[in-house]
Amino acid sequence: MVDNEREALTARGHEVIRFERDSDAIENWSVAKKTTLPGRVIWSQEAYRDLRATLTEHKPDVVHMHNTFPLLSPAVLYACRAQSTPVVITLHNYRLMCASRNFFRNGTICHDCVTGPAVQAVVHGCYKNSRPATATVVLANTIHRQAWRTMISAYMFISAAQRDLLTGLDLAPDRVFVRHNLIPTRHLSPATAATPPATGNTVIYAGRLDEAKGVRLLMAGWDHYQATTPSPALTLTIAGAGTLGPEITAWAATRPSVHLAGHADPARCAELMAAARAVILPSAWAEPFGLVAIEAMALGVPPVAAAHGAFTELITPGVDGTLFTPGNPQALGTAITDIDNNPRRYHTYGEQARDTYTKKFDPDHNIDQLLEIYRFAITNPA
What is the CATH number of domain 2-183+363-379? Predict the structure, then answer.
Protein backbone atom coordinates (compact mmCIF):
# COMPACT_ATOMS: atom_id res chain seq x y z
CA MET A 1 0.00 0.00 0.00
CA VAL A 2 2.84 2.38 0.81
CA ASP A 3 4.44 1.70 -2.58
CA ASN A 4 1.14 2.18 -4.41
CA GLU A 5 0.46 5.51 -2.72
CA ARG A 6 4.01 6.76 -3.15
CA GLU A 7 3.96 6.02 -6.87
CA ALA A 8 0.57 7.69 -7.33
CA LEU A 9 1.56 10.78 -5.34
CA THR A 10 4.89 11.10 -7.15
CA ALA A 11 3.10 10.84 -10.49
CA ARG A 12 1.08 13.90 -9.44
CA GLY A 13 4.22 15.87 -8.72
CA HIS A 14 4.30 15.52 -4.94
CA GLU A 15 7.55 14.83 -3.11
CA VAL A 16 7.42 11.70 -0.94
CA ILE A 17 10.20 10.93 1.54
CA ARG A 18 10.44 7.39 2.91
CA PHE A 19 11.26 6.86 6.57
CA GLU A 20 11.34 3.13 7.27
CA ARG A 21 12.81 0.41 9.42
CA ASP A 22 12.84 -3.21 8.24
CA SER A 23 11.80 -5.76 10.86
CA ASP A 24 13.85 -8.43 9.09
CA ALA A 25 16.96 -6.61 10.30
CA ILE A 26 16.26 -7.91 13.81
CA GLU A 27 17.50 -11.36 12.76
CA ASN A 28 20.99 -9.93 12.25
CA TRP A 29 21.14 -8.13 15.59
CA SER A 30 23.56 -9.32 18.24
CA VAL A 31 22.12 -11.25 21.18
CA ALA A 32 22.73 -8.25 23.42
CA LYS A 33 20.86 -5.93 21.07
CA LYS A 34 17.94 -8.34 20.75
CA THR A 35 17.43 -8.14 24.51
CA THR A 36 16.65 -4.44 24.04
CA LEU A 37 13.79 -5.11 21.58
CA PRO A 38 10.94 -5.05 24.16
CA GLY A 39 12.08 -1.65 25.36
CA ARG A 40 12.38 -0.38 21.78
CA VAL A 41 8.82 -1.49 21.03
CA ILE A 42 7.63 0.77 23.84
CA TRP A 43 10.01 3.65 23.04
CA SER A 44 12.69 3.81 20.37
CA GLN A 45 14.97 6.71 21.11
CA GLU A 46 16.77 5.99 17.86
CA ALA A 47 13.56 6.37 15.82
CA TYR A 48 12.63 9.52 17.75
CA ARG A 49 16.03 11.08 17.08
CA ASP A 50 16.23 10.04 13.43
CA LEU A 51 12.72 11.18 12.57
CA ARG A 52 13.25 14.57 14.22
CA ALA A 53 16.41 15.00 12.16
CA THR A 54 14.53 14.02 8.98
CA LEU A 55 11.71 16.45 9.72
CA THR A 56 14.20 19.22 10.46
CA GLU A 57 15.99 18.62 7.17
CA HIS A 58 13.01 18.24 4.83
CA LYS A 59 10.23 20.17 6.64
CA PRO A 60 7.37 18.13 5.15
CA ASP A 61 3.81 19.43 5.11
CA VAL A 62 2.50 16.23 6.65
CA VAL A 63 3.69 12.86 7.94
CA HIS A 64 1.67 9.83 6.80
CA MET A 65 2.21 6.89 9.15
CA HIS A 66 1.33 3.33 8.25
CA ASN A 67 2.98 1.02 10.77
CA THR A 68 5.08 1.91 13.80
CA PHE A 69 5.41 -1.65 15.14
CA PRO A 70 7.89 -2.89 16.18
CA LEU A 71 10.97 -0.79 15.39
CA LEU A 72 9.62 2.75 15.09
CA SER A 73 7.43 2.63 18.21
CA PRO A 74 5.00 5.37 19.27
CA ALA A 75 8.07 7.58 19.81
CA VAL A 76 7.58 8.82 16.25
CA LEU A 77 4.32 10.50 17.32
CA TYR A 78 6.24 12.57 19.86
CA ALA A 79 8.90 13.40 17.28
CA CYS A 80 6.24 14.85 14.97
CA ARG A 81 4.73 16.82 17.84
CA ALA A 82 8.15 18.23 18.74
CA GLN A 83 8.57 19.45 15.15
CA SER A 84 4.95 20.69 14.87
CA THR A 85 4.34 18.41 11.88
CA PRO A 86 0.75 17.18 11.43
CA VAL A 87 0.29 13.40 11.35
CA VAL A 88 -2.09 11.33 9.26
CA ILE A 89 -2.25 7.62 9.99
CA THR A 90 -3.71 4.69 8.10
CA LEU A 91 -4.79 1.94 10.48
CA HIS A 92 -4.31 -1.28 8.54
CA ASN A 93 -5.32 -3.74 11.27
CA TYR A 94 -6.67 -3.90 14.83
CA ARG A 95 -3.38 -3.78 16.76
CA LEU A 96 -4.25 -0.75 18.91
CA MET A 97 -6.92 -2.89 20.56
CA CYS A 98 -5.69 -6.41 19.84
CA ALA A 99 -2.15 -7.65 20.52
CA SER A 100 -2.39 -10.19 17.70
CA ARG A 101 -3.81 -7.44 15.44
CA ASN A 102 -6.64 -9.57 13.99
CA PHE A 103 -9.26 -10.24 16.71
CA PHE A 104 -8.64 -13.95 16.13
CA ARG A 105 -7.58 -16.57 18.67
CA ASN A 106 -7.61 -20.37 18.75
CA GLY A 107 -9.32 -20.62 15.38
CA THR A 108 -12.17 -18.23 16.10
CA ILE A 109 -12.99 -14.52 16.29
CA CYS A 110 -12.18 -13.02 19.69
CA HIS A 111 -13.20 -9.60 21.05
CA ASP A 112 -12.14 -10.17 24.65
CA CYS A 113 -9.91 -7.10 24.67
CA VAL A 114 -12.74 -4.96 23.27
CA THR A 115 -15.25 -5.93 25.93
CA GLY A 116 -12.78 -6.49 28.79
CA PRO A 117 -9.28 -5.60 30.01
CA ALA A 118 -6.36 -5.99 27.59
CA VAL A 119 -4.46 -8.03 30.18
CA GLN A 120 -6.46 -11.00 28.88
CA ALA A 121 -4.23 -10.97 25.82
CA VAL A 122 -1.21 -11.47 28.08
CA VAL A 123 -2.88 -14.41 29.81
CA HIS A 124 -3.53 -16.04 26.42
CA GLY A 125 -0.15 -15.08 24.92
CA CYS A 126 -1.93 -13.69 21.86
CA TYR A 127 1.18 -12.25 20.20
CA LYS A 128 3.40 -15.05 18.89
CA ASN A 129 2.04 -17.38 21.60
CA SER A 130 4.27 -15.58 24.09
CA ARG A 131 3.11 -13.92 27.28
CA PRO A 132 6.23 -11.73 27.63
CA ALA A 133 6.01 -10.59 23.98
CA THR A 134 2.28 -9.94 24.33
CA ALA A 135 2.86 -8.00 27.54
CA THR A 136 5.21 -5.69 25.64
CA VAL A 137 2.57 -4.95 22.99
CA VAL A 138 -0.15 -4.37 25.58
CA LEU A 139 2.12 -2.15 27.68
CA ALA A 140 3.08 -0.03 24.66
CA ASN A 141 -0.58 0.48 23.75
CA THR A 142 -1.48 1.35 27.33
CA ILE A 143 1.35 3.79 27.96
CA HIS A 144 0.79 5.68 24.72
CA ARG A 145 -3.01 5.48 24.50
CA GLN A 146 -3.40 9.20 25.07
CA ALA A 147 -0.81 9.95 22.42
CA TRP A 148 -2.72 7.88 19.86
CA ARG A 149 -5.86 9.84 20.76
CA THR A 150 -4.41 13.37 20.78
CA MET A 151 -1.30 13.62 18.58
CA ILE A 152 -2.83 12.59 15.25
CA SER A 153 -4.61 15.06 12.99
CA ALA A 154 -6.47 12.54 10.83
CA TYR A 155 -7.21 8.83 11.19
CA MET A 156 -7.88 6.76 8.09
CA PHE A 157 -9.71 3.46 8.44
CA ILE A 158 -9.62 1.20 5.41
CA SER A 159 -13.27 0.22 5.82
CA ALA A 160 -16.32 1.24 7.81
CA ALA A 161 -16.35 -2.25 9.32
CA GLN A 162 -12.85 -1.72 10.73
CA ARG A 163 -13.80 1.71 12.07
CA ASP A 164 -16.84 0.27 13.83
CA LEU A 165 -14.81 -2.50 15.49
CA LEU A 166 -12.35 0.08 16.84
CA THR A 167 -14.81 2.58 18.30
CA GLY A 168 -13.38 1.71 21.71
CA LEU A 169 -10.31 3.77 20.82
CA ASP A 170 -12.46 6.87 21.51
CA LEU A 171 -10.98 8.91 18.68
CA ALA A 172 -12.27 12.39 17.87
CA PRO A 173 -15.11 11.73 15.37
CA ASP A 174 -14.34 14.80 13.27
CA ARG A 175 -10.82 13.45 12.63
CA VAL A 176 -11.94 9.98 11.50
CA PHE A 177 -12.15 9.13 7.79
CA VAL A 178 -12.90 5.93 5.90
CA ARG A 179 -10.72 5.55 2.84
CA HIS A 180 -10.27 2.25 1.04
CA ASN A 181 -6.85 1.00 0.07
CA LEU A 182 -5.50 2.13 -3.28
CA ILE A 183 -5.69 -0.79 -5.72
CA PRO A 184 -4.07 0.01 -9.08
CA THR A 185 -5.22 -1.71 -12.26
CA ARG A 186 -3.04 -4.69 -13.10
CA HIS A 187 -1.61 -4.75 -16.60
CA LEU A 188 -2.12 -8.12 -18.27
CA SER A 189 -0.69 -9.64 -21.40
CA PRO A 190 -3.02 -9.21 -24.43
CA ALA A 191 -3.76 -12.95 -24.53
CA THR A 192 -4.71 -13.08 -20.85
CA ALA A 193 -6.75 -9.88 -20.99
CA ALA A 194 -8.74 -11.21 -23.96
CA THR A 195 -9.85 -14.37 -22.16
CA PRO A 196 -13.34 -14.01 -20.65
CA PRO A 197 -13.19 -15.42 -17.10
CA ALA A 198 -16.51 -17.27 -17.42
CA THR A 199 -15.11 -19.51 -20.16
CA GLY A 200 -12.66 -21.09 -17.71
CA ASN A 201 -13.42 -23.81 -15.22
CA THR A 202 -11.07 -22.68 -12.46
CA VAL A 203 -11.67 -20.90 -9.16
CA ILE A 204 -8.72 -19.50 -7.23
CA TYR A 205 -7.63 -18.76 -3.72
CA ALA A 206 -4.75 -16.26 -3.51
CA GLY A 207 -3.31 -15.29 -0.15
CA ARG A 208 -1.47 -16.44 2.95
CA LEU A 209 -1.83 -20.09 3.81
CA ASP A 210 -2.82 -19.76 7.46
CA GLU A 211 -5.77 -20.38 9.72
CA ALA A 212 -6.98 -16.79 9.94
CA LYS A 213 -7.31 -16.61 6.17
CA GLY A 214 -9.73 -19.55 6.28
CA VAL A 215 -7.59 -22.05 4.41
CA ARG A 216 -8.90 -24.99 6.44
CA LEU A 217 -12.43 -23.81 5.65
CA LEU A 218 -11.46 -23.70 1.99
CA MET A 219 -10.32 -27.33 2.09
CA ALA A 220 -13.50 -28.46 3.86
CA GLY A 221 -15.71 -26.43 1.53
CA TRP A 222 -14.00 -27.84 -1.54
CA ASP A 223 -14.46 -31.39 -0.27
CA HIS A 224 -18.15 -30.66 0.36
CA TYR A 225 -18.52 -29.34 -3.21
CA GLN A 226 -16.81 -32.41 -4.65
CA ALA A 227 -18.91 -34.81 -2.58
CA THR A 228 -22.33 -33.21 -3.17
CA THR A 229 -22.15 -31.96 -6.77
CA PRO A 230 -22.96 -34.39 -9.58
CA SER A 231 -20.03 -34.39 -12.04
CA PRO A 232 -18.09 -31.46 -10.51
CA ALA A 233 -16.27 -29.66 -13.33
CA LEU A 234 -14.31 -26.96 -11.51
CA THR A 235 -10.66 -27.05 -10.53
CA LEU A 236 -9.16 -25.11 -7.64
CA THR A 237 -5.90 -23.17 -7.86
CA ILE A 238 -4.24 -22.16 -4.60
CA ALA A 239 -1.57 -19.45 -4.83
CA GLY A 240 0.36 -18.49 -1.72
CA ALA A 241 2.61 -19.64 1.07
CA GLY A 242 2.36 -19.82 4.83
CA THR A 243 2.35 -21.91 7.97
CA LEU A 244 -0.29 -24.32 6.67
CA GLY A 245 1.66 -25.02 3.49
CA PRO A 246 2.61 -28.63 4.41
CA GLU A 247 -0.96 -29.45 5.45
CA ILE A 248 -2.37 -28.08 2.20
CA THR A 249 0.26 -29.88 0.14
CA ALA A 250 -0.68 -33.21 1.74
CA TRP A 251 -4.38 -32.51 1.20
CA ALA A 252 -3.93 -31.49 -2.44
CA ALA A 253 -1.79 -34.55 -3.19
CA THR A 254 -4.90 -36.77 -3.02
CA ARG A 255 -7.17 -34.40 -4.95
CA PRO A 256 -6.50 -34.13 -8.71
CA SER A 257 -8.90 -31.18 -8.94
CA VAL A 258 -6.55 -29.01 -6.84
CA HIS A 259 -3.49 -27.26 -8.25
CA LEU A 260 -0.89 -25.58 -6.04
CA ALA A 261 0.70 -22.55 -7.71
CA GLY A 262 3.01 -21.72 -4.81
CA HIS A 263 4.09 -18.19 -4.01
CA ALA A 264 3.21 -15.91 -6.94
CA ASP A 265 4.44 -12.38 -7.58
CA PRO A 266 1.75 -9.73 -8.27
CA ALA A 267 1.96 -10.08 -12.06
CA ARG A 268 1.63 -13.86 -11.98
CA CYS A 269 -1.14 -13.68 -9.40
CA ALA A 270 -3.06 -11.27 -11.63
CA GLU A 271 -2.74 -13.67 -14.55
CA LEU A 272 -4.03 -16.56 -12.46
CA MET A 273 -6.97 -14.54 -11.18
CA ALA A 274 -7.84 -13.14 -14.60
CA ALA A 275 -8.21 -16.68 -15.97
CA ALA A 276 -10.53 -17.78 -13.13
CA ARG A 277 -14.31 -17.85 -13.02
CA ALA A 278 -14.29 -16.55 -9.44
CA VAL A 279 -11.91 -15.76 -6.59
CA ILE A 280 -12.60 -17.43 -3.23
CA LEU A 281 -12.04 -15.47 0.01
CA PRO A 282 -12.90 -17.77 2.95
CA SER A 283 -11.37 -15.57 5.69
CA ALA A 284 -11.99 -16.79 9.23
CA TRP A 285 -11.14 -13.40 10.73
CA ALA A 286 -13.10 -10.22 10.03
CA GLU A 287 -10.78 -8.65 7.48
CA PRO A 288 -10.51 -4.86 7.73
CA PHE A 289 -10.33 -4.64 3.95
CA GLY A 290 -9.54 -7.56 1.62
CA LEU A 291 -7.11 -6.57 -1.12
CA VAL A 292 -7.69 -9.67 -3.23
CA ALA A 293 -11.41 -8.94 -3.53
CA ILE A 294 -10.78 -5.56 -5.16
CA GLU A 295 -7.86 -6.84 -7.23
CA ALA A 296 -10.25 -9.46 -8.62
CA MET A 297 -12.89 -6.82 -9.36
CA ALA A 298 -10.29 -4.75 -11.20
CA LEU A 299 -9.68 -7.78 -13.42
CA GLY A 300 -13.38 -8.37 -14.03
CA VAL A 301 -13.51 -11.48 -11.83
CA PRO A 302 -16.22 -11.79 -9.14
CA PRO A 303 -15.17 -12.40 -5.51
CA VAL A 304 -16.92 -15.07 -3.43
CA ALA A 305 -16.30 -14.17 0.20
CA ALA A 306 -17.23 -14.86 3.81
CA ALA A 307 -19.99 -12.46 4.84
CA HIS A 308 -18.21 -10.55 7.59
CA GLY A 309 -15.63 -7.83 8.08
CA ALA A 310 -15.20 -5.44 5.19
CA PHE A 311 -16.46 -7.91 2.59
CA THR A 312 -20.08 -6.97 3.32
CA GLU A 313 -19.41 -3.37 2.26
CA LEU A 314 -17.06 -4.15 -0.63
CA ILE A 315 -19.21 -6.80 -2.35
CA THR A 316 -22.87 -6.57 -3.34
CA PRO A 317 -24.12 -10.17 -3.47
CA GLY A 318 -26.04 -11.03 -6.61
CA VAL A 319 -24.51 -8.04 -8.40
CA ASP A 320 -20.70 -8.17 -8.42
CA GLY A 321 -20.00 -11.27 -6.33
CA THR A 322 -21.32 -13.65 -3.70
CA LEU A 323 -21.23 -13.82 0.09
CA PHE A 324 -21.55 -17.01 2.16
CA THR A 325 -21.99 -17.74 5.86
CA PRO A 326 -18.62 -17.29 7.61
CA GLY A 327 -17.02 -20.42 9.03
CA ASN A 328 -19.52 -22.74 7.32
CA PRO A 329 -17.93 -25.26 4.90
CA GLN A 330 -21.33 -26.40 3.64
CA ALA A 331 -22.21 -22.81 2.72
CA LEU A 332 -18.90 -22.41 0.92
CA GLY A 333 -19.39 -25.73 -0.87
CA THR A 334 -22.85 -24.62 -2.00
CA ALA A 335 -21.41 -21.34 -3.29
CA ILE A 336 -18.78 -23.23 -5.29
CA THR A 337 -21.51 -25.48 -6.73
CA ASP A 338 -23.36 -22.35 -7.84
CA ILE A 339 -20.20 -21.14 -9.59
CA ASP A 340 -19.95 -24.51 -11.35
CA ASN A 341 -23.60 -24.59 -12.44
CA ASN A 342 -23.91 -20.98 -13.61
CA PRO A 343 -20.89 -19.84 -15.64
CA ARG A 344 -22.83 -17.11 -17.49
CA ARG A 345 -24.10 -15.68 -14.19
CA TYR A 346 -20.57 -15.36 -12.90
CA HIS A 347 -19.43 -13.85 -16.16
CA THR A 348 -22.08 -11.16 -15.63
CA TYR A 349 -20.96 -10.74 -12.02
CA GLY A 350 -17.44 -10.26 -13.32
CA GLU A 351 -18.52 -7.53 -15.72
CA GLN A 352 -20.39 -5.79 -12.93
CA ALA A 353 -17.42 -6.27 -10.57
CA ARG A 354 -15.25 -4.36 -13.02
CA ASP A 355 -17.87 -1.62 -13.07
CA THR A 356 -17.87 -1.55 -9.25
CA TYR A 357 -14.09 -1.16 -9.25
CA THR A 358 -14.31 1.76 -11.67
CA LYS A 359 -17.00 3.54 -9.66
CA LYS A 360 -15.94 2.81 -6.06
CA PHE A 361 -12.22 2.08 -6.16
CA ASP A 362 -10.91 4.26 -8.98
CA PRO A 363 -7.22 5.02 -8.20
CA ASP A 364 -7.43 8.67 -9.27
CA HIS A 365 -10.41 9.33 -7.02
CA ASN A 366 -8.66 7.47 -4.22
CA ILE A 367 -5.64 9.79 -4.43
CA ASP A 368 -7.94 12.83 -4.58
CA GLN A 369 -9.47 11.63 -1.32
CA LEU A 370 -6.03 11.11 0.22
CA LEU A 371 -4.95 14.64 -0.70
CA GLU A 372 -8.13 16.08 0.81
CA ILE A 373 -7.34 14.29 4.07
CA TYR A 374 -3.79 15.66 3.97
CA ARG A 375 -5.22 19.19 3.52
CA PHE A 376 -7.57 18.65 6.45
CA ALA A 377 -4.67 17.55 8.66
CA ILE A 378 -2.53 20.51 7.62
CA THR A 379 -5.28 23.05 8.31
CA ASN A 380 -6.58 21.28 11.44
CA PRO A 381 -3.46 20.06 13.26
CA ALA A 382 -3.98 18.05 16.42
Answer: 3.40.50
